[in-house]
């Protein structure tokens, strides 16, 4: 954030705790009120910022994440402080999706992530893909077009050989946290992949080594 903007942000028009007001609720309010300004979110030493124009999020940053990925990572924060500063925003529009869509995707991502955490999925969890013919048979049994393996899903299945850990798979494929969570949730839900080992139950999926840095939990 530039010095000029920092000088303007002297008083906030909306502030509180994420434990009382979820990010989804905050964004809905700013969207309905066609707000313009900057939303700051802090969790300990972590700091995120979103730029709002006419109620729409047009840009966001947190740690190494930018744009939509930054918003979705902040959706994982269940505690922290937020403050909205009403201020005209002059910022390149890096986020094209409507805020309503961002909220729906963010909520879904948070639900998937927490479900995996409850299952004890962690960086050392080892997965093995079902045989290709078995997966093909399972897909054929579904209603036509109901289940489709995207290229990223197929890449994950090819690497999940029963030996590599989740951390190794994510690093090899270069998938960030959200992409890995989305793919893994889909494969587990459809029973296309098996959990072979689930070591270190005390660790969570957010402890994965780069690109899964321990930044959110």
Fold blueprint:
Layout: H1 3-8, E1 14-17, H2 23-32, E2 37-43, E3 46-53, E4 56-62, E5 65-66, H3 67-74, E6 81-86, H4 99-118, E7 126-129, H5 132-141, H6 151-159, E8 161-165, H7 166-173, H8 177-189, E9 193-197
Q: State the domain count.
A: 2
- The percent range for helix content is 25-40%
User: What proportion strand?
Assistant: 15-25%
Measured on Cα atoms, how large is the radius of gyration? 20 Å
Low-confidence sequence ranges:
1-10, 201-217
Largest sheet at a glance?
6 strands, antiparallel
Note the gap between the termini.
Answer: 25 Å
Order of helices and strands: HEHEEEEHEHEHHEHHE
Counting DSSP H or I runs of 4 or more residues, the number of helices is 8
Mean pLDDT: 86
Give me the secondary-structure category: alpha+beta
Which word captures the global form?
elongated
The number of distinct β-strands equals: 9
Strand order of the largest sheet: 1-6-2-3-4-5
